[in-house]
Write a structure and sequence with these properties.
This protein has about 750 residues and is of the alpha/beta class. The chain has 27 helices and 20 strands. The longest helix is centred in the first third of the chain and has 49 residues.
């Protein structure tokens, strides 16, 4: 329950007249004022009456029939009692000597005023003394007082003690008993009051030490109106900045200070629990004195009130701002990628679900862009994972900067990013947006002191109103992405059902390819390399084929791309190298035109992933040692693009292979963009002219000019040239005339 309402003032410990009197009383007389303790107040009243009794006895002593010396002694006794009783009240200490002296004073008063007239003083003296306890002393002192009075009677021969004062003498012990019991009752009451005050003080100290605001509030009799606040602890100033007095003086309808977003919830729960009497427990934001909103946890239970009084809400207010901030951070962490700060997969799907629901009612399209970096693994392998992480952060920043108000970029994991397009009029708009997101990625990235160009492909899926589930739309964009990658680098592809069929076929191929080595389904074929000058076989090129259990013998073009994208090209390439060396060593092949029995040189393709694998040089050396194949007869062919990528790591690996004795060749030369300086710095021994140039050699003057330039270029650098795909005698004759080896 929300604790609002003014607290009633506490009653003062003294009556108003006593406070006023105390203010005008000298300090020396202030101890004679009525004290706060109930027992002490009774003692004070008895003292006042006792002094009045002594004052009433004064005329009797002054005008009595006793002789002057006796009256003088009686006045002395009266003065003693005035001093003794006053001292007794002020100090609450009564030595035995004082009690004995009081008895003597009573006897003197009895002698001076007459035993009968002094009996009232005796009874009042016994009553007043009994208020100070203890039981044994009261009995003794009562006896002394009666004895003193009897002695006075004995001296006064005109009094018949038993006849005239017997009943009055019995009143003295009765008065003592009554006074003693009264003092015990009052003392017990005082002890209870002291214990209550001590307990209250301890409770207050405890309440003021706990890290929460404690409050007590009367139950409201009217709906939507707060009850009266009876107590609120000082912690209110720590949490909300209000002192308890300010809180009480400036209270209003508490909903005015509740955060607007929480107000309806608080009022509804307040009304419900006030009517039902159920415990109140709610978390809401409340405006502090400085204007900021503080998160509070409000817990209260309804306690029965006194008979005829309203019930009381007793509650606690906790400042839960730190917990709410921790929850907010956890929510951000749960919904955002830790590396890039972009929304993660969970948050993306959540937002996509919301967008699809809104699109259904608004009749608009929602699109998903699925972006994947091309060859990102090569960056990790070449520069390390830390550099790869920096690249991902930079890509995320560019995507986020390009996102519009109705677009949200997210990272799903690895190098996969998505973009939600919440306002799409037609599928063509989504394709145009994909091109827009590719544009900033074409600029170079600074990485490890170098400029790195990153290419990316994007798959696009567009959902019509009410047609797609979030997971389906994301999967369709993923399928379109792989279709874009098959078309080449840095492409955009819109999803269509035919792409889905192709994706399923590709998935099946990936699964079958995984088990192809285990099932020994690969086959190794050799293709001769003929020396154009002699026409003799100068070597063999190892080619792989896949004996597919259903589709039959497959060329590399049917599965190598999938193997490269999935990383399975590495074990496949290792198998080709080992099988080629083993077969060429164990079977000294003698082909038509061969002039010797030594193992023919063999050429084996080395893909980019193999080249950047840690320990690739040691693995190749191990194959050569195991098979006994001479390293100088092994030529490893790398593509022109691989020779340019990862320049530092590639240079070190190629130099180590050359030191091993292995020959190196650039495959498909003429289709890439190798520079003269790159070739000069690479330990290359031969160039393989791409078959596409050989095919156009007879009919395309440009292809013929390029081939001639390559041959002259290779001869200048001292490199051997090998032409791929010679199919006709005319091609052979022309290449021989151009000087191709």
């Amino acid at each position: 329950m929300a604790p609002y309402g003014p607290a009633p003032p506490e009653p003062p410990p003294y009556p108003a007249w006593l406070v006023a009197l105390s203010a005008h009383t000298p300090d020396s007389l202030r101890p004679l004022l009525p004290p706060q303790s109930l027992l002490d107040r009774v003692r004070w009243i008895v003292l006042a009456i006792g002094l009045a009794v002594l004052a009433a006895a004064l005329p009797l002593l002054a005008t009595g029939s006793a002789s002057s010396p006796v009256r003088l002694l009686a006045l002395t006794g009266l003065g003693w009692l005035v001093w003794s009783w006053t001292r007794r009240f002020r100090t609450s200490q009564i030595p035995w000597a004082i009690d004995i002296a009081d008895a003597a004073g009573l006897m003197l008063i009895g002698l001076g005023a007459g035993a009968s007239d002094a009996l009232g003083v005796v009874i009042f003296a016994v009553f007043g003394r009994a208020l100070y306890g203890g039981a044994g002393r009261v009995v003794v002192i009562t006896g002394l007082a009666i004895a003193a009075h009897l002695m006075a009677d004995a001296i006064d021969r005109d009094v018949n003690i038993l006849h005239d004062e017997g009943i009055q003498l019995v009143g003295a012990p009765i008065a003592a008993i009554m006074a003693y019991n009264l003092s015990r009752v009052l003392a017990g009451h005082e002890r209870s009051a002291d214990q209550l005050r001590t307990t209250e003080m301890r409770y207050r100290l405890l309440v003021e030490q706990i890290p929460a605001v404690t409050y007590v509030q009367r139950r409201s009799d009217h709906e939507h109106e707060p009850g009266t606040l009876l107590y609120i602890s000082p912690q209110i100033s720590t949490i909300l900045g209000y002192s308890p007095a300010e809180w009480a003086a400036n209270y209003g309808r508490y909903e005015d200070r509740v955060h607007p977003d929480d107000r309806e919830m608080v009022m509804a729960e307040d009304t419900r629990t006030d009517l039902s009497g159920e415990p109140f427990c709610l978390e809401y934001r409340y405006r502090a004195k400085d204007g900021r909103y503080v998160w509070l946890r409000d817990e209260a239970i309804l306690m029965p009130g006194e008979p005829g009084e309203p019930a009381l809400w007793q509650g606690l207010l906790f400042d839960i701002g730190d917990r709410k901030e921790a929850e907010r951070r956890l929510t951000v962490q749960a919904q955002h990628d830790a590396l890039t700060g972009l929304p993660n997969r969970f948050r993306f799907l959540e937002r996509l679900t919301q967008a699809l629901d809104e699109a259904e009612s608004a009749g608009r399209f929602v699109a998903v862009l699925f972006l994947d970096l091309d060859n990102f693994k090569d960056v990790n392998d070449s520069f390390g994972h830390e550099a790869g992480d920096r690249l991902l952060v930079a890509v995320a920043e560019r995507l986020a900067a390009r996102s519009g108000p109705w677009e949200m970029a997210a990272r799903l994991g690895g190098d996969e990013f998505t973009v939600l397009l919440d306002r799409v009029s037609a599928p063509s708009d989504a394709v145009a947006a994909a091109e827009r997101f590719l544009e900033p990625l074409r600029a170079p990235f600074g990485l490890a002191g170098q400029k790195i160009f990153v290419r990316a492909s994007i798959g696009v899926a567009v959902a019509s109103p009410g047609q797609e589930r979030p997971e389906d739309l994301l999967r369709q964009a993923d399928v379109a992405l792989y279709s874009a990658k098959r078309q080449g680098k840095s492409n955009v592809r819109l999803y269509d059902p035919s792409v889905q069929t192709h994706a399923l076929e590709r998935l099946r191929l990936e699964t079958q390819l995984t088990h192809a080595i285990e099932r020994a389904e690969f086959r190794l074929h050799f293709q001769p390399i003929v020396a154009l000058g002699t026409g003799h076989v100068a070597g063999l090129e190892a080619l792989i084929r896949w004996q597919h259990p259903v589709r039959g013998l497959l060329d590399p073009s049917d599965f190598i791309t999938v193997a490269e994208e999935t990383g399975q090209i590495v074990p496949i390439g290792n198998w080709v190298l080992a099988a080629a060396c083993h077969k060429a060593t164990g079977h000294r092949l003698t082909l038509p035109g061969s002039s010797g029995t030594a193992p023919l040189p063999i050429s084996v393709n080395l893909c980019a992933r193999q080249l950047i694998q840690p320990g690739v040089v040691a693995d190749i050396e191990a194959v050569l040692v195991e098979t006994g194949f001479p390293p100088e007869r092994l030529t490893l062919e790398i593509t022109e693009s691989v020779s340019l990528e990862h320049s530092h790591a590639t240079s070190e690996t190629l130099a180590a292979l050359r030191a091993l004795g292995v020959r190196l060749a650039i495959d498909d030369f003429g289709t890439g963009h190798s520079g003269l300086n790159v070739l000069r710095r690479r330990p290359i021994q031969s160039l393989k002219i791409d078959r596409s140039l050989v095919e156009g050699l007879l009919h395309n003057p440009d292809d013929r000019a390029i081939v001639q330039a390559i041959v002259i270029f290779a001869q200048t650098l001292g490199l051997q040239t090998v032409a791929e795909g010679i199919e006709t005698p005319d091609q052979l004759a022309l290449l021989r005339s151009l000087g191709c080896d």
